[in-house]
Amino acid sequence: MFAEVIVDLSNASVDKIFDYNTGDLNVVAGQRVYVPFGKFNIEGFVVRLKEDTTYDKSKIKNIISVIDDFACVTEEMIELLHFMIKHYHLKYIDALRLFLPAEMRTGKVKSLSKKVVEFVGNKQEIIKTLRKNAKNQIELLNFLDNNKKYYKSDLNEKFSSTTVNKFLQLGFLTEKDEEYTRSPQYLIKEDKKLNHTNLQERAITQILTGGEKTHLLFGVTGSGKTEVYMSVIEDVIKNNKTAIMLVPDISLTPQVLSNFKARFKEDVAILHSGLSAGERFDEWKRIRLGRARIVVGARSAIFAPLTNVGIIIIDEEHEQSYNSESNPRYFTKDIAEFRKNYNHCPLVLGSATPSLESFNKAEKGEYNLIEMPVRINGKEMPKIQIVDMLGEIRAGNSCPFSRTLMYELDNCFANNNQAMLFINRRGFSSFMRCIDCGYIAKCTDCDVSLVYHKDEDKLKCHYCGKRFNALTICPNCKSTRIRQGAVGTQKIVEELHRLYPNVKVLRMDNDTTSVKNGHQKILEEFSNSKPAVLVGTQMIAKGHDFKDVTVVGIIDADQSLYQSDFKSVERTFSLITQMAGRAGRNEAEGKVILQTYAPRHYAYKFIANYNYKGFYSKEINLRETAKFPPFTTIIRLLYSGENEQLVKEIIKANYNEILNLSNDYKEDFVYFDAMKSPIGRIQNKYRYQILIRLKQDNAREIIDKIYEACDRIQNPKVSFFVEINPASLS
Ligand code: ADP
Ligand code: ZN
Ligand code: ZN
Questions:
Q1: Which ligand is nearest to the Cα of residue 459, counting in written order?
Q2: What is the dihedral of CA 392, 397, 398, 400, to 10 degrees?
Q3: Nearest atom within ligand 1 for CA of residue 259
Q4: Nearest alpha-carbon partner for 418 in 255, 578, 528
Q5: 369-379 residues labelled b (16+ CB within 10 A) or e (exposed)
Q6: Ligand 1, residues 190, 191, 227, 585: which to mutate, most atoms within 8 A of Cβ?
Q7: Atom 15 of ligand 1 has which residue's CA nearest to it?
Q8: 3-state SS string for 225-244
Q9: Which end of the chain has fewer CB within 10 Å, C or N?
Q10: Among the bound ligands, the one closest to the CA of 479
């Protein structure tokens, strides 16, 4: 037998499938193996077995050994691998690595076993043999139950290892190794059995009886979508199938997890970035071996090694974080669509603010639209008030809080309630600038301005993480008149401390949540404090269900509105709508204060009226007129490298190839140009790009030809990536 093997090396020149002889080994497709490669023995993956090979048989080497006693990669995932290679122009090994816990490949984590002891003696008999003053032994004996197992390490800790070993010697205990699963601990609440509302019942029925459709579940915040997901999963499990439920990483809150754990117990495995390497590996293995049939996780859980998938759910489907923006780049929805077709199961996309693309597909009948337009408890959505910040400045208020917001905060705290303030910028202020000559502090390795972090009194680059001393003297003109730009989370916290010294102020952003369980600790502290205010970036906009939040303040709504990509308005709409949904979830009425310098922007009018469909119509028309997705496909070819001249050469060569191609498809190329990237340098690598917009009809075919054209001329010193409909063009 011969095996096609992908070797675990990330070198462009080995991005091929190699043939090996299986020898007398029993190998299955998907298994990890050791193979000789050049001078070394390395890990590889068998992707196919075959009777014959077209290579010279005398030169084909033998597989040395198999690594695991099971196939790491299922048949479905091998097919998915081929799909991804072609679709996203990835290297085999880069795509394959997505399917396994990283730590497993490098051999850093393994299955653990622990010594387990079992009590096999007779208490009455033994007690007679022990000395009266053998206190430890008597205590241990009293502790032990017949035929019950204990981790030896636990007993050692409680009663000393000498005592435990003594019992082993005397034959009161037997000892053996047992596999031990590291599993993340969650606070598990009781499972609430809820009577479904009519809307929930209808949604559940449509999903369960619709066959292999894609459904768009469009339900306002608090409409009870989670209960719909859980009921559908329950049914799927009863039919002996498995389920994947994706949520954005930041909404994997203890709340959501404990709901799932409460209902599905050991049947659910959880994959997210907060797990330790060992926990991730053990959860993965539980899934692969069929011990957990439900996977709840962030983006990468779409690669969960389940077989016989009965449903795939993507909650908050509009979220950017579902698209991987660094190599290997992929769209979670494409992968979900592939697995849905492979398994013939339904796919559910849920959101209170669906992406324009998805709603457009629902409109065209490609997706089945299910609507849940009211909140569970029939409560009104909180009122959104737009405040013109230019008016504040004219009235002499230069503080980041408008008078309206301060009035509401005063009330909120006086009534012992909670508030959430949203600002999409971490750090203290966005930049430091010299008033006299306009100099702005920039990173030495990246062409971006630095962000001031007051707690460390440092300037930080948010692209590469480098730190610099804060500016006191302008290096350009020696002026000491240095000013800070727009405010960030730290500055807001400082202002709050000053204005409300008796109110608990908490901050949640990338800087405060980098420690393990950082999110959870902040959220717990917030939910246990009153009056209190939580200041944060978009992390606080998702999924939290705090009963006593009566005020939500959007400090600077425009921040995301003016980012220079075609999705910025759409993103602002959903971000603010999600944020507003945090207010007034209980009896007390909620208020949302939206501060802006552009109060008449159409997005804000639709937001204030919770008019998603109105917004959708307006925005989709604009997209059509301007020829942006979903009416076209944007392709960005990104080139970067330390040698700027070389980068330019390669991009020039590729540009010319595509130019030829575009002559064959004149009608389809709506836009085509090469340029320096908006951020011209990151980590000392120069960045250039080709931007293309293609009409939808032949896009797939042309993209494949663009890949081919680009592959003809590349250089190992220039990294090259393809992005389709990228969220950011920076
Ligand atoms: P969404 O995900 O749509 O924003 P949630 O699933 O968080 O909404 O539901 C909001 C709240 O309503 C939760 O506290 C949930 O426990 C509760 N809930 C959901 N369905 C029901 C029901 N049928 N009866 C009573 N409460 C419900
Ligand atoms: Zn200066
Ligand atoms: Zn930098």
A1: 3
A2: -70
A3: 16
A4: 528
A5: bbebebbbeee
A6: 227
A7: 224
A8: HHHHHHHHHHHHHHCCCEEE
A9: C
A10: 2
Output the CA–CA distances (angstroms, integers) from residue 229 to 212, 236, 669, in the order listed: 16, 11, 41
Using CA atoms, how far apart are residues 443 and 21, in angstroms rounded to an integer? 53
Find, among 705, 711, 677, 707, the residue nearest to 691 by Cα: 677
Residues 383-428+487-620: name the CATH superfamily: P-loop containing nucleotide triphosphate hydrolases (3.40.50.300)
Query: pLDDT band at residue 726, thresholds of 50, 70 and 90?
Result: confident
Q: Which ligand is nearest to the CA of 225?
A: 1
Q: How far is CA 449 from CA 432, 440, 465, in A?
A: 8, 7, 12
Q: Could you list which residues have their CB under 5 Å from ion ligand 3? A: 443, 445-446, 461, 463-464, 466
Taking residues 279-286, report their average pLDDT.
89
Contact 219 CB / ligand 1 (< 6 Å): yes
pLDDT in tens, 307-335: 999 999 999 999 988 988 778 889 999 99
Closest CA to 634 of 578, 577, 566, 683: 566
CATH architecture of 198-372: 3-Layer(aba) Sandwich (3.40)
CATH number at 632-724: 3.30.70.1130
Counting ligands in written order, the one closest to the CA of 377 is: 1
How many CB atoms sit inside 10 A of residue 474's CB?
20
List, for residues 191-201, the tens digit of each pLDDT value: 778 899 999 99
Check pocket membership of 225 for ligand 1, CB cut-off 6 A: yes
432-434 and 418-422 beta bridge pairing? unpaired
Measure CA 610 to chain center. 27
pLDDT above 70 covers a percentage of the chain that reads 94
Task: For residue 639, give the H/E element and its range.
Answer: strand 632-641
Q: Could you tell me if the CB of 223 is within 6 A of ligand 1?
A: yes
Nearest CA to ligand 1 atom 24: 194
Alpha carbon distances (Å) from 577 to 383, 541, 542 = 11, 9, 10
Distance CA(430)–CA(449), nearest Å, equals 8
pTM of model > 0.85: no
**Ligand 1 centroid to residue 195 C-alpha, Å:** 11
Ligand 2 midpoint to CA 437 (Å): 4
CATH topology of domain 2-105: GIY-YIG endonuclease (3.40.1440)
590, 584 contact by CB (below 8 A): yes
Q: Tell me how far apart the alpha carbons of residues 713 and 647 are, in angstroms, rounded to a whole number.
A: 12
Tens of pLDDT, residues 141-166: 888 877 677 878 878 888 888 888 88
